[in-house]
Amino acid sequence: MGSFTTLSQSSSRLLFRQLFEKESSTYTYLLADSFHPDKPALLIDPVDKTVDRDLSLVRELGLKLIYAINTHVHADHVTGTGLIKGKVPGVKSVISKASGSRADVFVEPGDKISFGDLFLEVRATPGHTVGCVTYVTGDGPDQPQPRMAFTGDTLLIRGCGRTDFQGGSSEQLYKSVHSQIFTLPKETLLYPAHDYKGFTVTTVGEEMQYNPRLTKNEETFRSIMQNLNLPYPKMIDVAVPANMVCGLQDLESKAN
């Protein structure tokens, strides 16, 4: 655990907060460049019910919110990006092009999302949905160390997202994790979109050793995922249509 508290100068540049929405057990992440004059910031996976809390924190910390980002089209809650765009002029919503959703900015593998002198790298990690991406902090002496990856529902702490709806594929998810996440340095901190047992963070090394699903071979993993017998997500019929248009409201179409 000691490595978690040893921060380099570049790490102290990054202002980081992990926020929680209890009904859907969703984590929202606030990142900002605290050394930049404007203190530009972004939110990853905001939830509609906690938008006011998140924006209050942004104001208290003196940040300038420039992006509201989703890792994928969520099925268990409505994204807060639409509400945020209505409350904070100039904020741009971001999601993967592969998601087929509406947003101001569509990202593809290899793209960089810059905020001040920091950036997130986009990695395609489909499997839970066709449009899932993982956002990874930059690799370089002026970027936070250890690196951080925001894995959405692709990789959870000692688990992974389900693969039985929204174009999910257990084969794709397995390959995504092993090729795009497990190839990161073992000390990389992993922050998921959800946790249901009270955990907040893990590392690549931990999950490579202890994840009960993704340490198995691909055939065994596929069998595990096919036999989860999970209930139909209670919010899916509301959340997915709303999230395909950037949350509760498609502000651009209303303006037009």
From TrEMBL:
It comes from the Eukaryota. GO terms for biological process: glutathione metabolic process; hydrogen sulfide metabolic process. Its cofactor is Fe(2+). InterPro entries: Metallo-B-lactamas, Mito_Persulfide_Diox, POD-like_MBL-fold, RibonucZ/Hydroxyglut_hydro. Keywords: Acetylation, Dioxygenase, Iron, Metal-binding, Mitochondrion, Oxidoreductase, Transit peptide. It is an enzyme of class 1 (oxidoreductase). Signal peptide: none annotated. One of its GO terms (molecular function) is sulfur dioxygenase activity. It catalyses: S-sulfanylglutathione + O2 + H2O = sulfite + glutathione + 2 H(+). GO terms for cellular component: mitochondrion. It is found in: Mitochondrion. Residues 25-194 form the Metallo-beta-lactamase domain. CDD domains: POD-like_MBL-fold. SUPFAM superfamilies: Metallo-hydrolase/oxidoreductase. Its EC number is 1.13.11.18. Belongs to the metallo-beta-lactamase superfamily. Glyoxalase II family. PANTHER family: PERSULFIDE DIOXYGENASE ETHE1 (PTHR43084), PERSULFIDE DIOXYGENASE ETHE1, MITOCHONDRIAL (PTHR43084:SF1). This is persulfide dioxygenase. It comes from Hibiscus trionum (Flower of an hour).
